[in-house]
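Dear colleagues,

As part of the handover before I leave the project, I'm documenting each prediction I ran so the next person doesn't have to rerun anything. This entry is a single chain, and its sequence is reproduced below.
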Amino acid sequence: MFTTKDTKRRKVGSRKGLGFVRFVSFVVKLPCMAHSVAAHLQVQIADYDRFIRTVIPGYDAMRAVQLELLARRLPAQGRVLDLGGGTGALAAAVAERFSEVEIEIWDTDPAMLAVARERCARFGDRVSLVARSFAEPLPPCDAVVACIALHHVKDLAAKGKIYAAIHRALRPGGLLANADAVMSTVPWLREATFQKWEDFIVAQGISREQARDYFAVWAKEDYYPPLATELDLLKSAGFAEPECFWHVALFAVFGACPQPA
């Protein structure tokens, strides 16, 4: 069960002529599903945007790829769901790039959503916060994006259901663009990939011991499937032609459209 606080509803006239009720902002208590990024990453939320770039190679490059994909597929007045949107950095980038698009940030971490609320306040009600798990049913939309978020779903059957929900939510011509870690199960290649990741973190001024400690802590909640597994899950979810749009070392941007277009 869950309860809502500070719930505001406003009647909004759709630009396509249909009226609908939209949650402008609300907080939902999900005691069994809440996720603390600060505890998981061992970082203060205020330092998250700097920290993530010291441990994720190609972080900004992945965002650029996602924005370029959206530019090719997103209607001028479309709706984007940002799953696990955290501090709202990706949502803010989307709102800046596409001046009439609406974005919903879905996350269950109250501390991250508080940062997102402040960061995205300048966009008014074009950016809304949805304090729900992305495992719940999703509303109709024109694009779904996620950045370093879906690897928290360790159960592949559960992840497959999320991909199926995304497929159902996307309108014709829509887009899923997921930026995340992917890792081979081949032992020597997996070891080499972790070594490259560790070397990157060390190059940012973090000790090798600390990097290995991060890996050990993250492994308790994270799972990085092989890219082939992710694409297979997408195909099983109904996407006809899953695709990898960008891939460097263990990080990739991959996804699909509901139907080839």
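The two ends are 40 Å apart (CA to CA). The chain has nine helices and eleven strands.

All the best with the project,
I.
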